[in-house]
Structures are given as C-alpha cells and as structure tokens.
User: Fold these one by one.
Assistant:
Number 1:
Amino acid sequence: MNKRVLFIDDDERILAGFRRNLHSAFEVETALGPEAGLAKVKDSPAFAVVVSDLRMPGMDGITVLSRVREMRPDTVRVMLTGFADLTAAIGAVNEGNIFRFLTKPCETESLKAALTAAVEQHQLVMAERELLEGTLRGSLKMLSDVLSLLRPEVYGRVSRIAPYVRRMSRLGGDPSPWQTDAAAMLCLMGFIMLPDAIITKVERGRVLSAEDAAVYHQHTEVASKLVAHIPRMGGVARIIAYQEKNFDGSGFPADAVRGKDIPLGARILRVVLEFDRLTSAGQSKPEAYNAIKQAAGMYDPDVVAMLGEVLGDERKYVITQVGLRGLRERMILAEDMYVTRAGQQVKVLPKGSELSSVALEHIFKLARYDAVTEPLKVIVPTGT
C-alpha cells in the first residue's frame, strides 16, 4: 500500500513537527513553500496524499492542490489551515476537489485518522483504476481478436496503420494518446458487416455508387456504437465516428463539425488510412504522400506534415532476418508472412504489419499447428 504523504507549508517548524509526529505511521516528505511542493509532486513517485496549508505567500493552497490534481489526479488532497472560514473551505472543495479540510492546530491523533482515511481512499481509487484498465485491455483484446479471425486482411491493415498513428500522435502532442491508439486498433471493426465487393472497390479506389456509399459509411457508425458501450471509451468512439470526416467539413458524418473541432485522433486516422490505401494500391510512399499533400481541404495540413516527418524517420530503421522466436513487439514485417497448411502456403499477415503483443500471440498460436515460413524479414527500429 502506498503510504507516501507530502506536506506543503511555508513554516519549517510546522513541517518538522509533521515529520517528528507522523514518521512511524506514514512515509512523510515535506516541502517548504508551494513551488517546492509542486516540484516534488512532479518529479517524485506518486504520493498517496498531499496536504497543503491554505495561506502561503505567492500561491494559496487552493491553487496548489488544484495543480496537484492536474498533475496527479489519483492523489488524494487535504487542506490544512489556521483560518477556519467557510468561504475558503467551499472554495477549496469546489476548485481543488479536496478530500478533507482540517484546521490548525490539529491534534496528532486527529491528523493521523484523517490521513489514514485519505490513504484508504487512494487505495480504493487505484483499485478501481486497475479494474477499469484491466476491463479495457480485455475488451480491446477481445475485439481485436474477433477482427483478426473474421477479417484477417482488415486486421493486417490495422497492423500497418498502427505504428504511423502512434508516432503521429506523439508528434502532435495528442492530449489522449491512448484513445487515439485504441481507435486505430478498432477503427475498422465495422468492416465485419460490409460486403466483400464494397471493400474491394474502396481498396482499389473505385467510385462508389450512392447506394454502396451509404452502406460503406455505416462501418464507422457500427464500430463507434460498439466501442461506445465499453465504459470510459466515449472519446475513442468519437474518434472512430469521425475518421472519414474531411478537414473542410465535408465527408461523413454530414454535420457542422470541421477543422480543429474534429478530434485529433480522427484527423490522424483520416490521413493514415488514405495513405495506406494508396500504397496498398501500388503507389510508392512518396507518391502517396504527395497525393495527400495536394488534396486541398481534405486533410489537416498539420497532420499531413506529421506524416512527412514520420516518413523521414523511417530511414532510422534497419531490415534484418529473424527466426520465429526472434520476433519482438514493434518489429514490422518487411514481407508477407506465410504458414504451410495441408501442403499449401497461406498468408497470415501482410507486409507492413507492426507486431503488437496481440499479433505475436496470434502468430505463436498458429505455429503450434502450422509451419511458419522462416527466416522472417523484418524492419527493426534502431532503438529496439
């Protein structure tokens, strides 16, 4: 259990008293003044509880604990002050989401009881987070496995776009990179309900009839609704829903959302999915990039520039050959992967697929029953 408690106060004598009276029950750290306290919150391992004095020069405790909340939302926050006025208490609770409001002087036993309750609250918060994260990971893996089984060619496409999306998300300062990453893995879930003929037309760049286009655009709605049923995946569902929305506001869905109001993850997917479609249809990477760059109004120019930077970074990768057991996460297949089944070669993953933990698990399961063609030519980031 995390029992780390940070006290922030502008009086060294008070801080010394906290260290002396509480060190046997908690892992006590102190910071003299608000700036030093925020620096400790930022640079140290997470504290279970942060206790701040209300009245300090330069920055009051309400502001301090509000910033603690921004940096470490799971840390429980406690206000301690000698000024027991109701207005300050209300402000602290509303602005900093404070767990307890205590007044000085506070008896040691009362303070211990409050800190014990705060540590227990932190433990409950972390347990809930672990449960939710486990549920999310399991849900994403299940949906990804369904896609790989029902539409292996679509799963291959997802494996190809994922590394581009991940890098561009980092370059763009994505505020929710995990949502964008999850959206990339699930954005084509709706292809499960599309007829093969429509998928083929789209992949080959053919113009769809009005009837076929109406059917095709349902895939984003279907995938978005599937994901929206998973707790805390609303942001991911919105990215998926807007993955075919053009930067100028045209495209699907047909609403007033345009420009930077389109989620960043959706703008990234719009560019990367089109880039993958063009290269899969036979264009070279420079040709595909130039085609996207010249399509005025369709793509966010900042996102297009990110793609250009990522393509430049690909020179930092090396191509090598490895055996089946030499495969690692983040490696990218430099050629199609095949297994031998009933005397025939069957393609299981296409060239350009990034090997995630899910993909590796899928490969190793196949290898139990079918012979994988080895050695395998892969692209390896030089930092791996």
Note: Residues 4-127 form a domain with the Rossmann fold fold (CATH 3.40.50.2300).
Number 2:
Amino acid sequence: MTTTTSDGQANQLRKNSLGVAAVTFLVVSAAAPLTAVAGGVPLSMLLGNGAGIPATFILVTALLLLFAVGYVAMSRHVRNAGAFYAYTTRGLGGVAGGAAAIIAIVSYNCMQIGVFGLFGAATSGLLAGWGINLPWWAWCYLGIALVAVLGYRRVDISAKVLTVLVVLEYLVVLILDFAIIGQGGDSGLSLAPFTPAQFFQGSPAIGILFCFAAFIGFEATTIYSEEAREPTRTVPRATYISVLLIGIFYMFTSWLMANGAGVDKLVGEIGALEDPTTFLFTLSDRYVGTWLSQLMSILFVTSLFAGVTAFHNGVARYMYVAGREGLLPSGIGVTHRQFQSPHVASIVQTVIAVAVITLFAVTGQDPVLNLFSWLTNVGTLGIIVLMAATSFAVVAFFSRNAGLEANPLKAWILPVLSGLAFLVVISQIVINFGNLSGASGTLGWFLPSIVLIAAVVGAALAIGLRSRSAAAFEALGSARY
C-alpha cells in the first residue's frame, strides 16, 4: 500500500506545519500540567518527601536540561519522527534501535491507555454530579473516538485544540497560586521547602520518581521534527522551552501548595483526605472559592483529554516510522493522501486502546488504581529507559562523527552524566515499583518486565529485518525522509 501526497511525495508526514509554539503545546499537553498538579504532586508529597517536592522538581528539571543538551545536538543531524528509536539506532546500531522502537510503542501506548482510565473515572464523577450517569468505560470509548478523529486528521488541528486547553489549565492554577501569595499562605510564605532538610525527609527516591513522571511527554519535541518548520531551530527551542515551562510551573505551584497548607501541616493534611488527589481542590475552596474548584474539575477532565491526544499522536508516529522502515508491516508506514497524517498507525493505536479498555472493564478492574496506576508506571519506566539509551547513543554517534559537534560538553560529558543518572532512576523505579503502582506480588515484578519483553521483541524484529534485507537494516533510523 502506497499513499502519495498531492506534491508527489510518498508516505511523508505533512511538512512545515508546526512552529515552535505548536510543538511546545503538543509536548506540554502530554505532560498534562493540571493532571500532574492535582494528581501527581499531592501523591508525591504524601508518599515521597513531603514539602521537599519543590526542591525535587528543581533537581529533576536540571537533570532533564542536561539530557536535552545532547538530545537537541543530535536532533540537528537526525530528523526522524522516530525520535528515541532513530537516535538509538544511529548511535548504538540497528538491533538496539529495534528494541527502542518497540519499547517506545509499548510505553506510549501504556501512557495513553492508562491516562484514559483516569479520564473515564474523572469524567464519570464530574458528569454524575450533573445527573448524567454512565460507567467510566463509556466515557473512555467516547474519548477514544474523539482522539481518533483528531489523530486521523492533520496534526496542526490537534495542536490548535491542545493550545486552548493547556492555556486554560495554566490559568486556573495560576489564579490559585497568586491567591495563596496574596493571602500569605497558611502562616506566611516560607522558603523551607527548598532546604536540604525538607528534601531529604521521608522518601526522596519516590518523590524523584513522581517528579519524573510529571515531565513525561516533554521529550516528544523530536517526534514532530519531520513536520516542523525549520526543524533545526524549532526542535531545540521547543525542547528547552518545554522543560523550563513545565519545571518552573511545577516548582512554583508545589511550593505554594506546601505554603497553602503549611509546611509542617502538609503531609498530615493530605493524609487525612479520603482521596489525596482532592488536595488541590481543597486549597482552591479555601483560598479562592468553590467556583474555581468547579472550573478546575472541568479542566481536569480536559487536561486528561489533552494528554491522551498528545500521547496518541506520539504513538502513531512511532508506529508509522517502524512500519515505514520495515520493523512492522509496511502497511502501517503510510500517510493519508489528503491530511498527510499517519492514519493507519492512528487506527491501529485506536484499536489497541479499545481492546485494553474493554479487557479492564470486562474483568472489573478499577480505572484509577489498576488501569491508570499500573500502565502509566510501566510507561514512565519505559520512557526513562529510552532516555538512558538515547544519552549513550548521543555519545556513540558523535564519537563516530567527530566533525559534527566540536563541543565535548554536548557530545560526551553531559550525555554520559545524564545517562548514568537515568540508570540510577531506573533501578529505583524497579525496586519501588510495587509501592509506586500498587501492584503486589508477582504482578509487581511482571509489570516492569513488560519493558524488557518489548526490548527483546524489538531486537528480534531488527534481526529478522537484517536477515531479509541488509540494506533496509543499515538504513534504520536514517534522516533520509
């Protein structure tokens, strides 16, 4: 199957359709800022290091900026919607690249489908208050249908929708932030959350892992490199802007959340709640009023929708590239004649989402405690594994192509440091996976092993491709598109 665009180019994504702002909003929406602030931050405070979370966000932001240096340096030389897969391939070889491709597909599927669980539960709870009573899975199916339409059509349409939603998310949280500042918090604004004493209390390792999860999606800037205007400028700018925008926002808001409750009272107040994820709404009621809390409840649902839409776009592009380059069936690696979107890959991802949601619904699993918690933690682990592989791939790539990057900080030193740091984070996720996800016993070990299984499958697919076509194998991850 070959799809030819109006300009005669076969199987290509829509060129020059995304600027810096569009790519940034696609990426920031995947990070789902309101979802992270309402859901992830209170849990990180309760289970992690309490009021030390603002300092933890500074640490994680700094580490991701270190990673971004080598990441964007390589983006100038490898323009491929496969992003992590392409970088790993060009740096570490085709077999490692095949492993990275399937890890990426599995991880982003896990993130998207897991977030759909929370979307279904949140939408069901919100609309039940309005007299509309439908089970969580019904709202999941409706959300999947809407995302499928956006994913099938042009990506710039998705970007426009997500821009509006993300701006509204930031606005409502900033209203609360400045209300806390205006009223001086619980007992005056304190910089104590940034002290070593607060950072090292409780379980800093779990706090770091939650903070990493809040950033997942920022790395997707390179996924849109084939569709970006001036990709050598758009991708680096969007990457740095995304990390700084997300990191500063999380740090600032979590600091004010700690001050809003009182630094010494914070963990006790969150722990006393029946649902820790209602903490942001209790602060909203206290400092602004119920009208903002009600608006936040609506935007919480749209935040989740923005996240699943962005993850869908990412999954579809990874599948498209894997099909285009021979790792998956070639029929997946084509684009729509009119929209130049990876429409077949989008449809495949939609079918997978429907199947997994149906499985969890039929077996009576909880959409939040099981579907959301299990899958998003698997996805987070997989994406950090890809970040580690990419860090070392950057070093290998520039070692073989020394003339492309003369700065050793970009080509070697910072990528090595970030890669080693990611290995430490990976080990902590595996060790603490049961506590993070709520999965116990055999399940607590099986779920993280899904990433390893994906790597083995991907490596096997790459080896199979090499036996069928040495030329196709050598071209994996190239920037020829």
Note: Confidence is low (pLDDT under 50) at residues 1-10.
